[in-house]
Amino acid sequence: MAEEPFDVVVPLELEGGVFAERLSGWFTPDAITLDFLVRTADQQLVTTRVRIPATAALDVRSELEQVIRDYELTYGEIHRPRERGDA
Question: Pick from 38, 34, 43: which is nearest to 17 by CA?
Fold first, then answer.
């Protein structure tokens, strides 16, 4: 059965893409799902869901590890932000 078409409205400030504020993941026996969340200027939540077969998650992990290695070879080690004065 074909799904009915629907309109998607993307807030103007998000059209060009923004960094997600939060990532949530969950799984079923056959898929892994990642939800990326961001708040708009008026505090509405906008999410993007990426659902892939569980077996493809292994390829995603491998590719992500390679991209991180290449990034760190180019720009140096990735550090999480921390408060000033924290060691």
Answer: 38
Angle at 17 between CA 15 and CA 21, to 5 degrees: 120
Structure confidence at residue 28 (pLDDT):
95
Nearest to 20 by CA among 5, 35, 32, 9: 35
* pLDDT in the model for residue 70: 97
Q: Is 54 helix (H, G, I), strand (E, B) or coil?
A: helix
Give the pLDDT confidence of 10-30 residue by residue, as tens digits. 777 777 777 888 999 999 999
Dig out the tokens for 86 from the structure. Answer: 């924290």
CA dist list (Å): 47 to 10, 23, 50, 51, 87: 11, 10, 10, 13, 34
What letter does residue 9 receive in the DSSP assignment? -
What is the end-to-end Cα distance of the chain in Å, rounded?
Answer: 57
Q: Give the predicted TM-score (pTM) of the model.
A: 0.65
